[in-house]
Amino acid sequence: MDATPSTPLRAPGGFPVVGIIGGGQLARMCAGPAIELGITLAVLAEEADGSAAQAVRWAPVGDYRDPATVLAFARECDVITFDHEHVPAPVLAALADAGIPMHPSPAALVYAQDKLAMRARLGELGIPCPRWQAAQSAEDVAAFGAEVGWPVIAKVPTGGYDGKGVLVIDGPADVAEWLERGPVLLEERVDFVRELAVLIARSPSGQAAAWPVVETIQQDGICVEVQAPAEGLADELAAEATLAGLRLAGELAVTGVLAVEIFQTLDGGFVVNELAMRPHNSGHWSMDGAVTGQFEQHLRAVLDLPLGAPTPLAPVTVMANVLGGDYPQLYPAYRHLLARDPGLRMHMYGKGVRPGRKIGHVNVVGADRAQLSERARHAADYLSGVITE
Amino acid sequence: MDATPSTPLRAPGGFPVVGIIGGGQLARMCAGPAIELGITLAVLAEEADGSAAQAVRWAPVGDYRDPATVLAFARECDVITFDHEHVPAPVLAALADAGIPMHPSPAALVYAQDKLAMRARLGELGIPCPRWQAAQSAEDVAAFGAEVGWPVIAKVPTGGYDGKGVLVIDGPADVAEWLERGPVLLEERVDFVRELAVLIARSPSGQAAAWPVVETIQQDGICVEVQAPAEGLADELAAEATLAGLRLAGELAVTGVLAVEIFQTLDGGFVVNELAMRPHNSGHWSMDGAVTGQFEQHLRAVLDLPLGAPTPLAPVTVMANVLGGDYPQLYPAYRHLLARDPGLRMHMYGKGVRPGRKIGHVNVVGADRAQLSERARHAADYLSGVITE
After folding, report:
1. Which residue of A34, A285, A312, B243 shows the fewest CB atoms closer than 10 Å?
2. Sign, Cα dihedral of B44, A56, B318, B336
């Protein structure tokens, strides 16, 4: 790693440096807000021309699994935060031993890294969850399935994302390989009406702010659309879910953005599906649809700056993810879209096209939900090559 | 100049590279929009840790007055645009000879660089202007003053900004030194109601978009506040001024953002005061107050991408400039402000504090003009140290 920036990282006036471990699109989308806040963003990147490395002045390439590398990077920064949940515990411990401020802290982050720890802690807190069990063996799997009914959801406790590491299983044989590597989280399959997400930011001082509860629409385990706020959500459920998110943020001592993915259940209640402690796909709408977007808010939170207003700017914002298709030269399609709809808010990630890969998203802000959804989905589908006009 | 970027500048997918000559805050504020658009922004900077150099991956330091330096920089980019009007004609000619696309073009830029050329051209086009004259001698000055009445406004034709190069004179003696260096632009002092600005973006294809006409409030020749839209502006005057701006953009073949500073006159009409062919202080409000802000729009225009909607997001946006005061450590005051008003949209320029220097601005978006103005001005004054609570 090129551990020393060639020019001073700190801007004049006492404005600090935030270092992000990981150079994906979440780190990239922090770069614009960092510029406007006047702070400096540095990125420990996987590759010199990756998504976030394109967007910041200092993005040394280094292995986030190597304590010495991460420590050398962190010593140039005032606070460290994360693009993903995959930084190993020994690396986090090395940073903590060196007195490096980290937000979220390793003690909080464990609940986003380890789904078994998360389920156990949420259970203690009385937060609604699906029935679950840590299965060590085929017998455990069989017993759990017999108890809650097949099929059952099986999850690798650590390292999964975007539907990877999650299976719908009909019996122990489906997770035989996973069981060889360690315990597997089993969850009952919840009959849900739809998927929602609660997005919270919390600062080390304990200030918290919540954006409106959103609906997330998935295809093949990948989020394709988010509507903010969720359509026709009962005030009571919105309040309960938001309060659960705020309570979780406090109880787990989360610092930065916390995303709580929930299922709205048939009885009008909810159960928590997943947690993430970082800016999250379900909050991308806020970049254009709220006074303070999630990337700016995450930076404020990890710096213990006062949080900005999460107030929406319009009745509805719709976000659609752009997934890679078969055609790598996006720019002509992109041009066409900008001409077709001058109100589109495009966000491209500087990533090469691979089928199914998240390479950008588009926001549309307004009042007519169906029309906004059509516009956002059209743009995403056109860039993906799913539609050609 | 370090003329070769260490990693490829172009993101995958055919997204281009925009190069900006000059590394001030206008270039800096293009960086965030460039990231989201997915394009690459490169900056030819005055200093390695300057305002824009802090915000982009590749910002070689080089002299914008040296043709070889600028050419080497420009060859890494797909199109060149400008942070300021001071690039000398021979440098522009060298780029043109090398086939480098420039927006605005040198032929257009001359009207922003040379106020005498601007006055002559605007006169030809029948755009309302103050009475003016190019004075070569003390006799010319005396004759013009006798004709239009003293005092008279005297301007250095090239190189001025923020009130520098402008004087209110009572006689030829006040501009004796200027006259030794070349002709001086004289203008009658216009009795005006207030100052307005028309902001237009125009692309090489000829598409144009106009933001609402704003009011700019100056102190000591420096803009301190902008209200968008201008309060109580008659529809007819707004339409006439906007049409004049659009016509100017077309007739002068401006590409990128064009700012037309105008005086609203006592008779309900207007005269043009100044032109700028770049994002402009009078358009900073649009970063938070419009669907498409001026920095994004400038990038779209110079790339000949379709322009975004200039539609306001709220009834009123107020911008206040933060001018440097006596105290260099801004961050504690900044923290205080964010806590006091979670709706503030701060934009800091990464610049060291010098008294009177523009070091940032703040936008506030909403409906109550007086309250928005109070909030924006309070924030700016507090950061400037003009007020202490």
Report:
1. B243
2. negative
Q: Nearest Cα to B312, choosing from B210, B203, B207, B194?
A: B210
- B67 confidence band (pLDDT: 50, 70, 90): very high
Measured distance CA(B386)–CA(A376) in Å, rounded: 46
B335 is in an annotated binding site: no
Rounded Cα distance, B9 and A388, in Å: 29
Q: Which amino acid is at A185?
A: L
Q: Decide: B309 and B46 in contact? Cβ < 8 Å.
A: no
Rounded CA gap, A67 and A83, in Å?
17
- What residues of chain A, 287 to 316, have a C-beta less than 8 Å from chain B? 287, 291-292, 300, 305-309, 311, 313-314
Tell me the C-alpha distance between B112 and B214, whole Å: 20
Interface size, chain A vs chain B, as Cβ–Cβ contacts under 8 Å:
178
Q: Find, in chain A, the residue whose alpha carbon is nearest to that of B32.
A: A32
**Is A328 close to B13, i.e. CB distance below 8 A?**
yes
Polymer length of chain A: 389
Phi, psi of A359 (to 5 degrees): -115, -5
Tell me whether residues A38 and B350 touch, CB distance under 8 A: yes
CA angle A150-A155-A159, nearest 5°? 170
From chain A, the residues in CB contact with B352 under 8 A are: 12-13
DSSP B331-357: HHHHHHHHHH-TT-EEEE------TT-
Which residue is listed with tokens 């790693």?
A1
Instruction: Specify the length of chain B in residues.
Output: 389
Q: Could you give all domains of chain A from N- to C-terminal order, each with its CATH number?
A: 17-102 (3.40.50.20), 131-188 (3.30.1490.20), 192-384 (3.30.470.20)
Cβ neighbours of residue B361 under 8 Å, at least 6 residues apart? B281, B284, B319, B320, B321, B322, B347, B380
How is chain A split among helix, strand and coil, in percent rounded to 5?
35, 25, 40
The amino acid that residue A91 corresponds to is V
DSSP-assigned beta bridge partners for residue B168: B153
Cβ distance A13 to B342 less than 8 Å, yes or no, reads no
Beta carbons of B15 and A350 less than 8 Å apart? yes
Please state, in angstroms and rounded to a whole number, the distance separating the CA atoms of residues B56 and A41.
11
A264-309 residue pLDDT tens:
999 999 999 999 999 999 999 999 999 999 999 999 999 999 999 9
Tell me the mean pLDDT in the region B67-82. Answer: 98
